Amino acid sequence: MKYVKLLSVVVVLFLVSSCASVRVSSDYDREVDFNQYKTFAFYKKGIDKVDISDLDKRRILRAVEADLIAKGFTKSENPDLLVNIFTKSREKINVYNNNYNGWYPWYYGGFGPYGFGMGAYNNVTRSTEGTLFIDLIDANKKELAWQGMGTGALASSNNISKKEARIKEFVTEIMAKYPPMAE
Length: 183
What we know:
- The protein has 183 residues and is an alpha/beta fold.
- It is 31% helix and 39% strand.
- The protein has a 6-stranded mixed β-sheet with strand order 1-6-5-4-2-3.
- α3 packs across α4.
- The longest helix is centred in the first third of the chain and has 19 residues, at 2-20.
- Residues 1-19 have low confidence and may be disordered.
- Residues 24-180 form the DUF4136 domain.
- Residues 1-22 form the signal peptide.
- Pfam families: DUF4136 (PF13590).
- This is DUF4136 domain-containing protein.
């Protein structure tokens, strides 16, 4: 019985932590020398097409800018890299079924106050999962050099500070994959 309780606690903690984390991947052109890039600018034409609020766009762009500057880049009118973003979201429905039967001393019913019992506990939750793509485009060649992608649960739009923290977490986790030689 202790083993089952311990296992259920571990599973719940894993599920909670996996919901909170950002799953990240990246891809890049192996022919590109990423040390050549020192300056960046945002690709306004592409960013304008992103279907999220202007406030969220600015939050994402500020986080990307802060990360690139921390990596030694400079924002420029004549950049080496153009930064573009793209987002997707989808609603997830999670169903948790906990059917149980057996000896439960705390179960009231069945064969008396202590005894055999059966029951079920169902829980349905809805959440929104978002994906943020960050593209780094070679400004001279107009070719994609690097792309990072992060997927995870989105923060509620009712709490602005949580939303800003979640966006920053997405960007930080994605940009940790750049430059690819650091992997």
